[in-house]
Amino acid sequence: MRFAIQGAARYSIGMIDQLLEDLSYEHDANCDRFLRGWLDTLDPLERLAAAVATEHHYQLSLVAISQAADRALVQVMESVKPAIEDLAKNF
């Protein structure tokens, strides 16, 4: 999983979103682990954008995961404060 997360750094958020779209119905637990690990590697603004762009996977294809909708919301909520702090630092 570590190599997949490291390799994902080369791809755009949209490309990762499409990859998850293709794989999530068959490999939901692995997609969840990958998504959480990948989000942790992003800088604050990218993390917020990626969390928002991928949250629908937890509502549509990763629903078999315990508390899937809650995980999506937590990922977005945890991304907001660091993103705002990063913006404030740069302006």
Q: Helix share of residues? A: over 70%
Number of strands: 0
Main sheet attributes: strand count, strand direction, barrel closure: none
> Structural class given helices, strands, pairing?
mainly alpha
Mean pLDDT: 88
Short description:
The protein has 91 residues and is mostly helical.
Considering the chains and any ligands shown, give keywords for the structure.
91 residues; mainly alpha; 6 helices; globular
Tell me what the structure shows.
The protein has 6 helices and no strands. The protein has one domain. By secondary structure, it is mostly helical.
Topology:
Layout (H helix, E strand, L loop, with lengths): L1 H6 L5 H11 L4 H14 L2 H11 L1 H5 L7 H23 L1
Helix pairs in contact: 2-4, 3-4, 4-6
